[in-house]
Amino acid sequence: MDVPFVRVARECGERARRELADADLIDDDYEIDVEDERLYVPVVDPDAVGDDLEVVFRAGNERDTQTTPADLLGFDPSYERLGRAVLLDEDDKERARTIADAVLESDLPVDTIVNKASKVKGETRIRDWDVLAGDDTEVVHREYGREFALDLATVYFSPRLATERHRVTEQVEADERAFDMFAGVGPFVIPVAGRGAECVGVDVNADAIEYLRDNARRNDVDDRVTAVCDDVRQVAAEYDGWADRIVMNLPHSADEFLDAAVTIAGDDCVIHYYDIQHEDDPFGPGERAIRAAAEPTYDVRVENRRTVRSYAPHELNVCLDVRLERVGE
User: The whole model's pTM is what?
Assistant: First the structure.
């Protein structure tokens, strides 16, 4: 019997898969297939697939039944996947141990299981972890065809922002100069450099900068990536007027770095400004802060206001895509 599949070019496969997964449309009874540089993703309801995706009918290979942690536990545990690591957020250590044991017994491809042992803390935004399985906290994460090595114990990384990072990356032109003010291990820098842009990534965390350099090599973009370990406010003057695009993903305190961003901005520059604000006015504080820093030197135009995700009760993680155009003398 023929099965409905979404057919996309292989290089667009991860984006299509995520879109279908978010809509709960992937048919887990059949395998995802690759043929002639096309990816075929089985779907449960072809009529629910967006008009931007092509649906075809073809023979499908039935997936072997796999045992999940939920099958073993009798409930759906909450966890994140990062490469071959599973990240738990359980206050009850016994419950965390029970879930970890079920994950290990399941068919999930897992080498490491950790449980959050602290909140994000300090200037480098790292947290403590209890290692429940595996030898250490170093993992390799793959995202939209790119590979990122990182150590959960020494750097900050959020897999939840993959779609947002891809959205920004898709806007980049090959001849751009892009500046990431809080670069981490390179989840913005690496794919943007992969588009052909020249990139500078700055971070105060020396471990993150070492991983950024390693990840640039892993993804064959090291010739287009400059990694700097410093407070970006200390190096801004060295890149005066340099950037066509700036990423400011430090949502709790990005406003403290806007003067540096204005220094780095070229004559026509897009800033991706991330913020966390109350749902009553999630975009206003950021827009006002940007205007206060950039005007009257620049004309400021907000091109996009985007809610990235819910952060906490009544608080939203948002992004402002803002174009700065220098006013003529």
Answer: 0.80
